[in-house]
Amino acid sequence: MAWSTREIAALAGTSLRAVRHYHEVGLLPEPERRANGYKQYGVAHLVRLLRIRRLTDLGFSLARIAEMGDGDGHPEEALRALDAELAATIERLQRMRAELGLILRRSAPTDLPPDLAPATANAGLSEADRALVVVATRVLGPEGLRVYSDMLGNLPEDPVHAEFDRLPADAGDAVRQDLAERMVPCVRDLYARNPGLRDLGSDAPGGAGFAGRTVGQAMLDLYHPAQLDVLRRLHTLLNGP
């Protein structure tokens, strides 16, 4: 039995281009040619083509198929290795679907961890505040993130938060001092409700110092000088000079 390239491609359910590619990469041996120069494929070529197709359908790459050779009709070790890879891929995809479901159900932002995103939904955070939260999630440890999430999820409504967000960059000294003083009770209450805030970086992977410096640098980038001055005044009022 002898088939042309087009015929064997049709029998194997593949394309002429695929057959030629398998020749190029050494997966399929070149057949003999007729007197007119046309290739003539036999049963062995068809069996090999069908095996290549079957293995690629199972998820094997052409490189791995080449490693197997063509003598093992049941490559158990390779099949088990692929099965383990597929199981890991399925587990990863299931985690991704679960996280996507959580994001969709809660209309949560995609730049925050799923456990923290719901806490920010009703916190009334400004764009700068949200960006600061994103940075914090990259440097805090599990316990620090839990405390931070609890705090964000239970932020008391206080008009001074909105005043801080709207503070003009050219706000005068008296305005800054007044705002800082009016923020003191709110912040003291926040620490009373969430005592873990005082040791937020205790389990930070890079250490508390690195976490503090990173968040501090982010604040310098996110808030304008008048707001930063209010925060410095607030710190002095809470902790002394």
TrEMBL record:
Q: Which Pfam families match?
A: MerR_1
What are the entry keywords? DNA-binding
Where would I find the HTH merR-type domain in this sequence? 2-71
Matching SUPFAM superfamilies: Putative DNA-binding domain
**Coiled coil start-end:** none
For this UniProt entry, the molecular function terms from Gene Ontology, in alphabetical order, are: DNA binding; DNA-binding transcription factor activity
In terms of InterPro entries, this protein maps to:
DNA-bd_dom_put_sf (IPR009061), MerR-type_HTH_dom (IPR000551), MerR_fam (IPR047057)
Keyword DNA-binding recorded: yes
Q: Which Gene3D superfamilies match?
A: 1.10.1660.10
Protein name as annotated:
DNA-binding transcriptional MerR regulator
Q: Which organism is it from?
A: Amycolatopsis endophytica
